[in-house]
Design a protein that fits this description.
It contains 6 helices and 8 strands. By secondary structure, the chain is α+β, with helices and mostly antiparallel strands.
Length: 155
């Protein structure tokens, strides 16, 4: 299963977030108590299942002689770690630290990014949606095609 789609949400007065049902199902598939790991990446809050977090840490541990940029990224990702369980109503309680670090106010968008979900301020998400970059060369370099990039073609 993958985290896909998006939902506009409002945090309640205690900073709790109602995740889309599909996201909750994925989390419960990997954790009986509904535990999820939150951290920061590119100045945004990201969430992942505990096994995905474990795989992330293992991947980071393989990096030898990291550059300063990699060390800084590792500091932010590892330092932002917070393991949280969904509450009895299936809400994700976001700590004040997580909300502040992710610049989250009342209105947010939660969206899937395959192996993780992201929680962004609504205005930043809408800015992301407003722009399209030319990714055709990167797709070609990776021998990947998308049916909606580069025009129409027949099967």
């Amino acid at each position: 299963m993958h985290f896909l789609g998006h939902a506009y949400r409002s945090l309640d007065s205690k900073g709790r977030l109602i995740l889309p049902q599909d996201f909750k199902d994925i989390i419960h598939e990997y954790s009986a108590d509904g535990s999820v790991v939150l951290t920061l990446y590119q100045n945004h809050v990201i969430g992942m299942t505990v096994p995905q977090w474990d795989a992330t840490v293992k991947a980071l541990m393989k990096i030898r002689n990291p550059s300063r940029a990699m060390e800084d990224t590792m500091r932010r990702v590892l330092g932002g770690y917070e393991k949280i369980a969904l509450d009895g109503q299936g809400r994700l309680p976001l700590s004040s630290h997580t909300r502040k670090s992710g610049r989250l106010k009342k209105d947010v968008v939660v969206f899937g990014s395959i192996h993780r979900f992201e929680i962004w301020p609504t205005d930043e998400y809408e800015q992301l949606q407003a722009g399209d970059a030319d990714i055709s060369q990167e797709l070609a370099d990776n021998n990947a095609t998308l049916p909606f990039v580069g025009g129409f073609y027949a099967d």
